């Protein structure tokens, strides 16, 4: 046992992270199969495959449930889970703080305000479209991130501390405006708001997935490129700059990436907590802080966890369903605490 | 000529074949919305229902049916898993994406107009009756409800000095959430021969203590809730803003079932009569 406590060399960690990647790919696949196989209705993958093998066609209802309900929901869930996981890892790396989550750059508060505006004002002026809430939430997220970025950037340098503090102020302001709108909201709008804030994939559709993809997929693909830069940032901004990393560029890209990915995720599914903060943390505890590995792994774990949580959300109270934010928090919080306790036990 | 006739006959046949599935006796009905399900039951057709939403609480027999969740946060697969052959949904059912999928599923989806006023009840009954193939029973029920409403209105008009009623939705943290102008509670208060004590704002809003005192309601109306959330009459009386109102002084705190009071369904005339009796003793 004593030997294991000694510092693992980098090679060890690399091998572990790679093993973890394969494990996570497996986990994502299992989550995908479960999400397609299980649901409130009796359609199962086994029956579907058996039917197709017999050369028969699926009934219209089964096709609808598989192709128009479960599959777009799975695709959207994978993208959103990955987006939240990667965004969390980017933010924790950028702020060098394990408590940072995508909400810290104001995406959540801005998106929330956008959603409230669309629900309440949309109701007042009589403009209600299925797209008004997602579009307003996305716009709200972006506006707040750009505003924060402008505030925190002076002569080409972005102050991370100012970003953090301005984020708190902006969140408070957005909260106040949200409060005013809640005051004028009617009973039904209040219910809509509550459900929105807990998040759900129940409104998933191919159209939503197609709209979210251009904002989320590029971030997922490009984020690992920031890994080395974020590793260097862990030494401090000045040190990273001295060893030749374009610190300002890294900051800008990380912030814009988070704004795009989290903004699209929040717009499509409402507020889903805990994935963004737990996923990178879990990975860092198990496979170390190397961002080049952490970022892709965070995408995989986030996707697997969100799809798994969504499957539970659909099954636990079927034929009704739970808001997914409840599941991620109920499952995420105890696991997180357990890991922290184990960790501190080892260190003590 | 004969060819034209045959064609017409074919067309008619094809048309009826298209419309028949929707009209044929649906026997696996999902009711979405408390008043919608209540009307199905009032038409004696609740045995044909296979599921309901969480707001469908009356009659009690509905409680045995699977619950597909809150009417504005439905999941499409949950509803379809019950293999419905007719979905009767309140206009407010949602989210819109779920409604789109349900409509695309080929299961007949009938929208029941959302109305929080007495005049809309007959229309709701008519739409549901047509969907169930119970036009005659629906016409009778609608006529009965309209007659009941007319009677309630006549009695309300005959009242000389009208009492003012404050409808309290919730009393969370001692804050009075009251029903203002244009609210469904105001509609039922008027129908029962009362006037709304809360004026100057629309819908359901928190009211400041001083406004509550100034409104000086003659009676307080609340929804009857089961379980520990129920605020007791003593709690109501203990609130400083309410303690000095004529309502509390004369112990006029009225409690009624929420769906009956505010659902605007077949029980609305009954609710109006009950409220009028509680207010005026007649």
Secondary structure layout:
The complex is a heterodimer of chains A (348) and B (282).
Chain A (H helix, E strand, L loop, with lengths): L1 H4 L4 H28 L7 H9 L6 H36 L11 H19 L6 H21 E2 L2 E2 L1 H25 L2 H12 L7 H17 L4 H7 L3 H6 L4 H23 L5 H13 L3 H25 L8 H24 L1
Chain B lengths: L1 H22 L5 E4 L1 H9 L6 E4 L23 H5 L5 E5 L5 H9 L4 E4 L8 H12 L2 H23 L6 E7 L5 E4 L4 H8 L3 E2 L7 E4 L1 H7 L3 E6 L8 H6 L1 H4 L2 H4 L3 E5 H5 L5 H13 L2
Parallel strand pairs in B: 1-2, 1-3, 3-4, 5-7, 5-9, 9-10
Antiparallel strand pairs in B: 5-6, 6-8
CATH topology of the largest domain in chain B: Rossmann fold
Number of beta strands of chain B: 10
* Helix content estimate of chain B: 40-55%
How many DSSP E strands of chain A? Answer: 2
% residues in beta strands of chain A: under 5%
The helix tally of chain A amounts to: 15
**How widely separated are the two ends of chain A?**
15 Å
State the helicity of chain A in percent bands: over 70%
Which percent range describes the beta-strand content of chain B? 15-25%
Can you give me a brief rundown of this structure?
The complex is a heterodimer of chains A (348) and B (282). Chain A has 15 helices and two strands. Chain A has 348 residues and is mostly helical.
Description:
The complex is a heterodimer of chains A (348) and B (282). With 348 residues, chain A is mainly alpha-helical. In chain A, strand 1 (153-154) and strand 2 form a beta hairpin. Helices cover 77% and strands 1% of the residues of chain A. With 282 residues, chain B is an alpha/beta fold. Chain B is built from 13 helices and ten strands. In chain B, strands 5, 6, 7, 8, 9 and 10 form a six-stranded mixed β-sheet that branches. Chain B has a four-stranded parallel β-sheet with strand order 2-1-3-4, with helices on one face. In chain B, strand 5 (164-170) and strand 6 (176-179) form a beta hairpin. Chain B is globular, with a radius of gyration of 22 Å. Chain A binds chain B through residues 39-42, 60-61, 64-65, 68-70, 128-130, 183, 186-188, 191-192, 195, 200, 202-205, 208, 314, 317-321, 323, and chain B through 51, 54, 66-70, 72-83, 92, 94-98, 100-101, 104-106, 169, 203-206.
């Amino acid at each position: 046992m004593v030997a294991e406590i000694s510092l693992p060399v980098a090679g060890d960690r690399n091998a572990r992270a790679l093993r973890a990647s394969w494990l996570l790919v497996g986990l994502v696949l299992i989550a995908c199969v479960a999400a397609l196989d299980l649901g409130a209705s009796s359609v199962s993958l086994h029956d579907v495959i058996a039917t197709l093998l017999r050369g028969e066609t699926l009934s219209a209802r089964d096709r609808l449930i598989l192709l128009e309900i479960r599959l777009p929901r799975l695709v959207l869930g994978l993208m959103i889970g990955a987006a939240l996981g990667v965004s969390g890892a980017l933010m924790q790396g950028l702020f060098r703080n394990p408590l940072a989550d995508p909400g810290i750059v104001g995406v959540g508060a801005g998106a929330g305000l956008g959603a409230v505006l669309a629900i309440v004002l949309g109701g007042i002026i009589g403009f209600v479209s299925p797209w008004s809430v997602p579009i307003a939430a996305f716009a709200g997220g972006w506006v707040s991130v750009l505003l924060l970025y402008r505030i925190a950037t002076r002569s080409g340098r972005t102050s991370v501390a100012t970003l953090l503090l301005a984020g708190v102020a902006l969140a408070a302001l957005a909260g106040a405006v949200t409060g005013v709108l809640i005051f004028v909201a009617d009973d039904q709008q209040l219910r809509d708001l509550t459900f929105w804030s807990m998040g759900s994939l129940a409104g998933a559709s191919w159209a939503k997935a197609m709209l979210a993809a251009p904002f989320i997929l590029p971030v997922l693909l490009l984020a690992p490129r920031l890994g080395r830069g974020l590793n260097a940032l862990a030494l401090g901004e000045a040190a990273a700059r001295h060893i030749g990393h374009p610190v300002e560029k890294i900051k800008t890209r990380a912030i814009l990436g988070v704004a795009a990915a989290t903004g699209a995720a929040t717009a499509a599914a409402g507020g889903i907590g805990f994935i963004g903060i737990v996923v990178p943390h879990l990975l860092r505890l198990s496979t170390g802080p190397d961002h080049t590995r952490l970022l892709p792994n965070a995408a995989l774990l986030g996707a697997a966890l969100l799809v798994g949580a969504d499957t539970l959300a659909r099954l636990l109270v079927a034929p009704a369903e739970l808001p997914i934010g409840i599941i991620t928090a109920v499952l995420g919080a105890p696991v997180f605490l357990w890991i922290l306790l184990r960790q501190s036990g080892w260190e003590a | 000529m004969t060819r034209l006739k045959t064609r017409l006959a074919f067309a008619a046949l094809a048309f009826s074949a298209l419309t028949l599935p929707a009209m044929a006796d649906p026997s696996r009905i999902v009711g979405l919305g408390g008043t919608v399900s209540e009307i199905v039951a009032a038409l004696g057709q609740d045995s044909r229902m296979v599921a309901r939403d969480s707001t469908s609480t009356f009659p009690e027999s509905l409680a045995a049916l699977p619950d597909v969740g809150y009417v504005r946060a439905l999941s499409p697969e949950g509803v379809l898993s019950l293999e419905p052959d007719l979905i009767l949904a309140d206009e407010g059912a949602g989210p819109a994406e779920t409604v789109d999928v349900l409509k695309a599923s080929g299961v007949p989806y009938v929208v029941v107009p959302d109305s929080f006023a007495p005049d809309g009840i007959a229309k709701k009954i008519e739409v549901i009756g047509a969907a169930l193939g119970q036009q005659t029973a629906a016409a009778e029920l609608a006529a009965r409800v309209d007659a009941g409403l007319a009677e309630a209105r006549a009695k309300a008009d005959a009242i000389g000095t009208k009492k003012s009623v404050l409808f309290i939705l919730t009393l969370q943290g001692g804050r009075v959430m009251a029903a203002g102008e244009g609210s469904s509670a105001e509609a039922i208060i008027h129908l029962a021969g009362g006037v709304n004590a809360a004026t100057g704002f629309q819908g359901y809003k928190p009211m400041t203590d001083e406004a509550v005192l100034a409104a000086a309601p003659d009676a307080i109306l609340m929804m009857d809730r089961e379980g520990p959330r129920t605020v007791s009459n003593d709690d109501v009386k203990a609130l400083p803003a309410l303690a000095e109102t004529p309502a509390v002084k004369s112990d006029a705190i009225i409690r009624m079932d929420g769906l009956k009071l505010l659902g605007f369904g077949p029980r609305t005339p009954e609710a109006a009569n009950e409220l009028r009796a509680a207010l005026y003793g007649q």
